[in-house]
Design goal:
The protein has 589 residues and is of the alpha+beta class. The protein is built from 18 helices and 28 strands.
C-alpha cells in the first residue's frame, strides 16, 4: 500500500479528535486563549447546549489582520519560539492547534481588533475550508463564534450527550476558570438567560468564598517547602465527598488532574478523613516553570513534575500543619448555619489522655475507677488529671480552656459557656481526640507502654485475618498489641497497650486487622493513624459515662494541646455552637 500525504482538512479533523471532545472543550480552549491575551473580562454565551452556538467575547489584546490569518494554520502560536521555551511554559496554550482544530469541525467566525488599531478583522472558516478575511468595525478584543459543532462529522456529533449534560460541562469550565483566575470577571449566558457571574476579586481567598458562599465553610491552608508554595481552601472532614469531583487542583494557575497531589490532600487530613473521601475545595500549587512539564496531555489536563515526591510532601505537610494548628474546628452551629471556630494551638511535648491507669491522688468516682476509667492527674509536671488549679485554668490562652463548663447533658454532651455563645461538646469525640494524640505521640517516640496479660486471650480468626497477622505482626506489635498465630484458626494475644489493657483483646485485635485490611485494598496508605484512631475509640470516655466537673475542666484544657482538636480521629465534629444572638432570637428577646 502506497504511503500518501493527508490533506490539511483531514489532518485538522484528526487533531480535533484529541482537542475537541464536546462544547465544553471548545469553551476551555477559547477561554484560555482569552486569558493568554490578557483579558480582564470574558463573556460566554451558548445556544442549544453549545452545539448550535458558542460565543466567547473577551477584552484582551486582540490580533492584527496578519496574526488573525496565520492563527488558523496548525502549529502557529505566539506562545513559544524555541525548544527551550517548551521547558518553561507559563501560558495556557502553546501548541497552536486549538483554533484550526475547532474550525475544522464547525462554522467559525472570529472578530478581533487590537486596542491600538482603528479597524478590526473578521475571519470566517467553514468546516476547515480556507479562511475568508475582511475588514470590519469592532470593539477592542476578540469575539469567537462557533456554530453547528460537528456539523460535518456526524459520527462525532451523535456521541454528544443531552443538552442539560453538555450545559453542565460548560458550567464546570467557567467555574474552574473563575477559580484559577480571581482577577478575571466571567459571565455565562444560556439561551439568552444569565446563568453565572464571577466578578473579579483581589485574592484566591475571596474567589473561594464567592464561588462556594455559605454552602461550604472553608479553612485556609498554606505552606512553603523549598521552591514549592501551596495555598488551599478546604472543607471540614464531615463535609468530605466520595471521590475527587469537588476538589480542584491548580498548578501555576492551570487546572490539572494529578492523583498523587490529590492523595496528598487526603493524607494531610490524617485519620479524620474517611478512606476514599476527599474534602470540598481548591488547592493551588506554585513552583518554578522549569520544574513542571505541561506538554503531557493533548488537552493539557495533566502535568509531570520534575520532583513529584517534593510536591506530594509540600501539599500534605502544608495542609496537615495548617489544619492541625487551626484545630479544624469547622462545624454547623445549633441554629443550622455554618460557623467557624478558629484558634492557634500551642505546640507542646506532653500528651494528654482522657483515660489512664488508676493512680493515687487522682479524682474519680469509685464506679469509674472500678471500670478502669480514671480521669486526669498531675504526673511528672504535666497536666494529665485531677482538678485543675485556678492559675492553670484561668491563665490558659487556649480556646477550649477559655470555656466555662456548665453541665453534662444526657450522658453524652458537655454544655459550656463561651464569650460569644453556648458551646456543646461531644464528650466521646473530644476524649477520643485527646487519647488519639497521646497514642500517636507515644507511638512516634517508640514509647507506647504495654501491659502483659496474666492469661493469654485466644481469638478465633478467619484465614484472611490470620494471613494479615502473619504479614504485619511486627507493625501490630509496634502498636502495643502482641499477638501470634496459635493454631489453624486462632491467635493468642499476650499483651495490650497499657491505656487499653482493660479492653477485650479480641475486639481490639479484630478492629486493628480490619483497618490494616482496608489500608491494603484502598488506593493510598496511611493505616497507622486509622489503627491508632480505632484504639483511641476503645480507650476514651463513651456516651453514657458520667463526667465530673474536674474531668470536664481537664478535658477542655487537654484539647488545647492537641492538633485537629475540632474533630475526633474519625472526622466527627467535637464542638458546635449557638450564638447568644441566636439564643435571644429564639426566646423572643
Amino acid at each position: 500500500m502506497k504511503i500518501k500525504r493527508l490533506p490539511d482538512a483531514l489532518i485538522n479533523q484528526i487533531a480535533a479528535g484529541e482537542v475537541v471532545e464536546r462544547p465544553a472543550s471548545v469553551a476551555k480552549e477559547l477561554v484560555e486563549n482569552a486569558i493568554d491575551a490578557g483579558a480582564t473580562r470574558i463573556d460566554v454565551a451558548i445556544e442549544g447546549g453549545g452545539i448550535a452556538l458558542l460565543r466567547i467575547v473577551d477584552d484582551g489584546s486582540g490580533m492584527t489582520r496578519e496574526d488573525a490569518e496565520i492563527a488558523f494554520e496548525r502549529h502557529a502560536t505566539s506562545k513559544i519560539e524555541s525548544f527551550d521555551d517548551l521547558t518553561r511554559i507559563g501560558s495556557f496554550g502553546f501548541r497552536g492547534e486549538a483554533l484550526p482544530s475547532i474550525a475544522s469541525v464547525s462554522q467559525l467566525t472570529l472578530t478581533t481588533r487590537p486596542k491600538e488599531s482603528e479597524e478590526g478583522t473578521q475571519v470566517t472558516v467553514n468546516g476547515g475550508a480556507a479562511p475568508l478575511l475582511e475588514p470590519i468595525g469592532a470593539r477592542p478584543g476578540t469575539t469567537v463564534e462557533v456554530r453547528e459543532l460537528f456539523f460535518n462529522v456526524p459520527a462525532r456529533r451523535k456521541f454528544l450527550k443531552s443538552v442539560p449534560t453538555e450545559v453542565g460541562h460548560l458550567q464546570e469550565v467557567i467555574f474552574t476558570a473563575a477559580l484559577g483566575r480571581p482577577e478575571l470577571t466571567l459571565t455565562f449566558t444560556k439561551d439568552g438567560r444569565p446563568v453565572a457571574e464571577y466578578l473579579r476579586v483581589t485574592s484566591r481567598a475571596q474567589r473561594a468564598e464567592s464561588v462556594w458562599g455559605v454552602k461550604e465553610k472553608l479553612s485556609r491552608c498554606a505552606g512553603t517547602r523549598g521552591k514549592i508554595e501551596v495555598e488551599a481552601f478546604l472543607s471540614a472532614p464531615e463535609r468530605a465527598r466520595a471521590g475527587t469531583g469537588h476538589l480542584y487542583l491548580f498548578v501555576n494557575g492551570r487546572s490539572v488532574r494529578d492523583r498523587a497531589a490529590l492523595r496528598a490532600v487526603a493524607q494531610g487530613y490524617g485519620s479524620v478523613l474517611e478512606p476514599g473521601k476527599f474534602p470540598v475545595g481548591v488547592v493551588y500549587v506554585d513552583l518554578p516553570k522549569e520544574e513542571v512539564d505541561v506538554n503531557v496531555h493533548p488537552q493539557k489536563a495533566e502535568v509531570r513534575f520534575a520532583d513529584p515526591r517534593s510536591v506530594f510532601d509540600a501539599v500534605m505537610y502544608s495542609i496537615r500543619d495548617s489544619l492541625g494548628r487551626a484545630g479544624g474546628a469547622i462545624d454547623r452551629g445549633l441554629s443550622g448555619a455554618s460557623i467557624s471556630v478558629g484558634y492557634p494551638l500551642p505546640q507542646v511535648g506532653n500528651p494528654f489522655a482522657a483515660r489512664t491507669e488508676a493512680t493515687s491522688g487522682s479524682h474519680s468516682s469509685p464506679q469509674r475507677a472500678a471500670e478502669g476509667v480514671v480521669p486526669f492527674e498531675i504526673r511528672d509536671g504535666a497536666w494529665v488529671g485531677g482538678a485543675p488549679s485556678a492559675d492553670l485554668f484561668g491563665t490558659e490562652n487556649g480556646f477550649y480552656a477559655g470555656l466555662r463548663f456548665l453541665a453534662q447533658l444526657r450522658g453524652m454532651f458537655l454544655l459550656c459557656e463561651g464569650k460569644d455563645g453556648l458551646y456543646v461538646l461531644d464528650q466521646h469525640a473530644a476524649a477520643e481526640r485527646v487519647t488519639f494524640d497521646r497514642l500517636r505521640r507515644a507511638f512516634q517516640s517508640s514509647k507506647l507502654a504495654t501491659q502483659r496479660l496474666l492469661v493469654p486471650e485466644i481469638v478465633e480468626l478467619s484465614s484472611r485475618e490470620l494471613a494479615l497477622l502473619d504479614e504485619r505482626e511486627e507493625e501490630i506489635a509496634a502498636l502495643g498489641i502482641e499477638a501470634k498465630r496459635s493454631g489453624p484458626g486462632s491467635a493468642s494475644v499476650t499483651a495490650l497497650p497499657k491505656i487499653l489493657s482493660k479492653k477485650p483483646g479480641e475486639t481490639l485485635l479484630r478492629d486493628v486487622l480490619a483497618e490494616l485490611w482496608r489500608e491494603a485494598v484502598r488506593p493510598f496508605g496511611g493505616a497507622q493513624d486509622l489503627v491508632l484512631a480505632t484504639m483511641a475509640c476503645h480507650g476514651s470516655i463513651r456516651a453514657g459515662d458520667a463526667v465530673s466537673s474536674e474531668e470536664a475542666f481537664a478535658l477542655l484544657a487537654a484539647l488545647d494541646k492537641v492538633d485537629f482538636a475540632g474533630h475526633c480521629p474519625h472526622g466527627r465534629p467535637v464542638i458546635t455552637r449557638m450564638s447568644y444572638g441566636e439564643l435571644e432570637r429564639r426566646v423572643g428577646r
